[in-house]
Specification:
By secondary structure, this protein is α+β, with helices and mostly antiparallel strands. Helices cover 45% and strands 18% of the residues. It has a 4-stranded mixed β-sheet. Strands 2, 3, 4 and 11 form a 4-stranded antiparallel β-sheet that branches. The structure holds zinc ion (ZN). Zinc ion (ZN) binds next to loops.
């Protein structure tokens, strides 16, 4: 039978194996990021006989891990990657802040929100009918040019001839042509979006974003936002890490960047946090940033 310690070790291993950010990729060398735990001593809870620690997850490039297993993996002559490691809490926070930016934009601008427009663009570019669409767009531009030129000629001629309706029929014809082409463009656009295989997943993404709980960002202390693992797992394909910036590729074909990923756990001191029991607190110690159990051990 497993004793408790061994069981916990296995659980930690399992948990790390299925870590949320297993699909982050190093922007320096292209290797995957690994999740490992660091631990830190808590001085004000340690005393002459007992030391107090807490552990926190960080993520770093596989080629930058100093663990035994990874030293073995590096072949002779292969160099270590010197990319920085990231605190998982910073990745969580920057991801959530981005989701709330997207949410704000969606609430204010609806279908004109940046994420929607980018989704539409990606649909068009992926579509088999993209060339047809572009052709109609070109035709519209040309038709508008002709319409403008004709209107201008009529204006100029009216001064000379004293008549201002010489080209009225022609102008009307061109106007109809433009309207027809605009219609055609909208029809193709609708068809492309309607048939896009990513549409259900994009619609679901928008639904999830709009359902996020309201957070008062106007508050004096910045807010540590609870991480929505479900949203991350459902919609993120992978993320490329470039120091402070992570560029996420979504499953609906749009990419976005998050910033602030290089913050350290202690940078979140003075942030406001809502605990699991729903209470609001101001973080005053690094271990309060993550939900972690403190570990005590006897001093040797
Ligand atoms: Zn690397």
């Amino acid at each position: 039978m497993l004793n408790k310690n061994r069981y916990e070790k296995i659980m930690i291993k399992k948990r790390d194996k299925f870590a949320v950010f297993s699909h982050l990729v190093c922007g320096v060398c292209g290797k995957p990021f690994k999740r490992i735990r660091y631990s830190s001593k808590i001085y004000n809870l340690s005393n002459s006989t007992t030391e107090c620690f807490f552990s926190y997850p960080i993520l770093k490039c596989e080629k930058n891990c100093k663990t035994k297993e990874n030293t073995k993996k590096l072949k002779k002559g292969e160099k270590r990657c010197y990319s920085e490691y990231l605190h998982e809490c910073a990745i969580h926070q920057s991801f959530m802040e981005k989701l709330y930016d997207i949410r704000q934009d969606l609430l204010q601008n609806g279908s004109n929100a940046k994420i929607v427009q980018e989704y539409y663009t990606s649909c068009l570019e992926r579509s088999l009918y993209y060339e047809d669409y572009q052709r109609v767009v070109r035709n519209i531009a040309e038709a508008n040019e002709v319409l403008e030129e004709t209107t201008q000629s009529q204006k100029e001629l009216s001064v000379v001839l004293g008549k201002d309706n010489i080209f009225d029929n022609l102008i009307e014809e061109y106007q109809n042509q433009c309207a027809d082409l605009e219609n055609q463009k909208n029809q193709i656009f609708k068809q492309i979006i309607y048939n896009d295989e990513n549409k259900p997943i994009f619609d679901y993404f928008v639904e999830c974003i709009l359902k996020l709980p309201d957070i008062n960002f106007a508050n004096q202390s910045p807010c540590l936002i609870s991480f929505e693992k479900g949203i991350y797992l459902s919609f993120v394909k992978y993320g490329m890490v470039y120091g402070d910036v992570i560029e996420y590729q979504t499953k609906f074909g749009v990419s976005f960047q998050t910033h602030g990923n290089s913050l350290k756990i202690e940078d979140f001191i003075d942030y406001k946090k809502i605990t699991d029991s729903g209470k609001s607190m101001i973080i005053s110690e690094p271990y309060e940033v993550i939900n972690t159990q403190l570990q005590y051990r006897k001093k040797k």
